[in-house]
C-alpha cells in the first residue's frame, strides 16, 4: 500500500473519526484506525464494537492496500507535520513509513484481518433528515443523557420520527431535555422510536459540523442497529436496549409562574453564586422569587454569595433549589437572548404539607424560539 495525502486532509479526517476510539479498548486492535485505499481515495475507519465510523479523504493512491495504525499516535504525528503532502508506504512486518517534507516516521501497525468487519447499511432504505437542525437538536439534549445511571435505557436519547415531525428526548433521572421540530420527513411505515447511544449522537453532530450545514443526513434502522450517512461518512451503532421512561409525565402541562429572564445575565449570576457551592452536593443554589426580584444565593462553610435580577413579578414569595451545573448546561446551548423560567412551587409561607405537595420541577424554555419546541425540566434540590 502506498498513497499521498495532504496534511490538512489527513488531520481533518482523523479529527472526525478518532472520537469513536476508546482509550482503554477491550481489544488492543480497537485502539487502532483502519486505513484502506479505495477508488475515491483513502478510507479511514474506527470501531469500539458498538459504534463504527468510516470516512473518505482525498488522496492519490499509488498502490492499493490496507493497514491499521495506533489512532492516538497517528493523530499526534499528523498534527505535528509541516503543511505539505504526506506519503504513506507499507513496509515489511506491517510497519509503515510516513514522510512529509524533511520529516520521516516509521511506526508499527497491525494487519487488516485482525480488525472487526464494518456493517454495510442499506443507505437507500434510509430517510433524509435536515443536517443543521438535527445537529442543533442533538446539542440541546446531549448533556442530559446519563453517563452513570445503571438503567441502560437512559444511556441514550429517544429519537422519534413521524411524518412531519422529529423529536429527541434525553434524561438522567434528575432532569429532562425535550426538543421537537416540524419536518418534511415522511414515514410510510408509521412512527419510529429508537434509543440512540450518547456516543453515536455526539459523533453524528461532529460529522455534520465537519461536513458543513449543506450536507444531507440519511438515517435508517435495520435489526438492532441504526446508521447515519453524512457526506463521505457512515456511522453505525447498536441500539440501546430497554424502554425509555414516560417523559410526557414529567413535563408540566401548565405553569403558575412564568418569568422571562435575560440569558447572559442569568448565566453569569449562576456562575458567580455557584463558586462557593458544594461540588459534592451538586453545587446547589437557592432561587428566591419575590416582588420585582429574583435572588440567587449559596451558603456553605466556605462562604456565601448572592446576586439578584430585576424581574416582572408581583406574586407571593417562592423559593426553590437547583443544581447550578444543570442550569448552566441549558443556558450554554439554548441559543436565545432570553429564557423562560416556569414554576409551580408553593409559596414560601405555605404549610409543610403544601410545600411538599408543591415540590415540583422547574421548566426552562427559550423565549422567542419558533423553529423548535424546546423544554428543559429540572428536579428541585432540597435547600
Helix-strand makeup class = alpha+beta
Helix content: 10-25%
Rg over CA atoms, rounded to whole Å, is: 25 Å
CATH architecture identity of the largest domain: Roll
User: What best-fitting shape do the alpha-carbon axes yield?
Assistant: elongated
**What is the CA–CA distance across the termini?**
64 Å
CATH topology of the largest domain: DNA Polymerase III, Chain A, domain 2
Largest sheet: 8 strands, antiparallel
Low-confidence stretches: 353-358
Which properties best describe this structure?
19% helix; alpha+beta; elongated; eight-stranded antiparallel beta sheet; 3 domains; 383 residues; DNA Polymerase III, Chain A, domain 2
Descriptive report:
The protein is α+β, with helices and mostly antiparallel strands. The protein has three domains: 2-114, Roll (DNA Polymerase III, Chain A, domain 2); 123-247, DNA Polymerase III, subunit A, domain 2 (DNA Polymerase III, Chain A, domain 2, Roll); 251-378, DNA Polymerase III, subunit A, domain 2 (DNA Polymerase III, Chain A, domain 2). The chain is built from seven helices and 25 strands. It has helices at residues 7-17, 71-80, 131-141, 198-211, 263-273, 324-333, 352-357, and strands spanning 2-6, 32-38, 41-47, 51-57, 60-63, 66-70, 85-90, 95-100, 103-108, 127-129, 156-162, 165-171, 175-182, 192-197, 217-222, 225-230, 233-238, 257-262, 284-290, 293-300, 303-310, 318-323, 338-343, 362-366, 373-378. The strands form four sheets. Strands 6-2-3-4-17-16-15-10 form an eight-stranded antiparallel β-sheet. A hairpin with a 6-residue loop joins strand 24 and strand 25. Helix 1 packs antiparallel against helix 2 (71-80) and helix 3 packs across helix 4 (198-211). It is elongated, with a radius of gyration of 25 Å.
Amino acid at each position: 500500500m502506498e498513497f499521498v495525502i495532504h496534511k490538512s486532509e489527513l488531520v481533518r479526517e482523523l479529527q472526525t473519526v478518532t472520537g469513536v476510539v476508546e482509550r482503554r479498548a477491550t481489544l488492543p486492535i480497537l485502539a487502532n484506525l483502519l486505513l484502506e485505499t479505495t477508488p475515491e481515495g483513502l478510507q479511514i475507519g474506527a470501531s469500539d464494537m458498538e459504534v463504527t465510523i468510516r470516512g473518505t479523504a482525498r488522496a492519490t493512491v499509488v498502490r492499493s492496500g490496507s493497514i491499521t495504525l495506533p489512532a492516538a499516535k497517528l493523530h499526534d504525528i499528523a498534527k505535528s507535520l509541516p503543511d505539505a503532502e504526506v506519503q504513506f508506504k507499507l513496509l515489511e512486518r506491517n510497519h509503515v513509513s510516513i514522510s512529509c517534507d524533511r520529516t520521516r516516521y516509521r511506526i508499527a501497525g497491525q494487519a487488516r484481518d485482525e480488525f472487526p468487519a464494518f456493517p454495510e447499511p442499506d443507505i437507500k432504505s434510509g430517510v433524509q433528515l435536515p443536517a443543521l437542525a438535527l445537529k442543533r437538536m442533538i446539542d440541546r439534549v446531549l448533556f442530559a443523557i446519563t453517563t452513570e445511571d445503571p438503567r441502560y435505557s437512559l444511556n441514550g436519547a429517544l429519537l422519534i420520527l413521524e411524518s412531519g415531525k422529529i423529536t429527541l428526548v434525553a434524561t438522567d433521572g434528575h432532569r429532562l431535555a425535550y426538543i421537537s421540530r416540524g419536518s418534511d420527513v415522511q414515514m410510510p411505515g408509521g412512527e419510529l422510536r429508537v434509543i440512540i447511544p450518547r456516543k453515536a449522537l455526539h459523533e453524528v453532530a461532529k460529522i455534520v459540523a465537519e461536513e458543513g450545514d449543506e450536507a444531507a443526513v440519511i438515517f435508517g434502522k435495520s435489526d438492532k442497529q441504526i446508521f447515519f450517512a453524512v457526506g463521505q461518512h457512515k456511522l453505525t451503532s447498536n441500539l440501546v436496549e430497554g424502554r425509555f421512561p414516560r417523559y410526557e409525565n414529567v413535563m408540566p402541562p401548565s405553569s403558575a409562574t412564568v418569568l422571562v429572564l435575560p440569558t447572559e445575565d442569568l448565566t453569569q449570576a449562576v456562575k458567580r453564586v455557584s463558586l462557593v457551592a458544594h461540588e459534592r452536593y451538586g453545587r446547589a443554589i437557592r432561587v428566591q422569587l419575590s416582588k420585582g426580584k429574583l435572588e440567587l444565593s449559596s451558603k456553605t462553610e466556605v462562604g456565601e454569595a448572592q446576586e439578584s435580577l430585576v424581574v416582572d413579578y408581583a406574586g407571593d414569595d417562592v423559593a426553590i433549589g437547583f443544581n447550578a451545573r444543570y442550569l448552566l448546561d441549558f443556558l450554554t446551548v439554548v441559543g436565545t437572548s432570553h429564557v423562560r423560567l416556569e414554576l409551580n412551587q408553593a409559596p414560601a409561607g405555605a404549610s409543610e404539607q403544601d410545600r411538599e405537595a408543591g415540590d415540583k420541577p422547574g421548566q426552562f424554555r427559550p423565549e422567542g424560539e419558533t423553529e423548535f419546541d424546546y423544554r428543559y425540566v429540572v428536579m428541585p434540590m432540597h435547600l
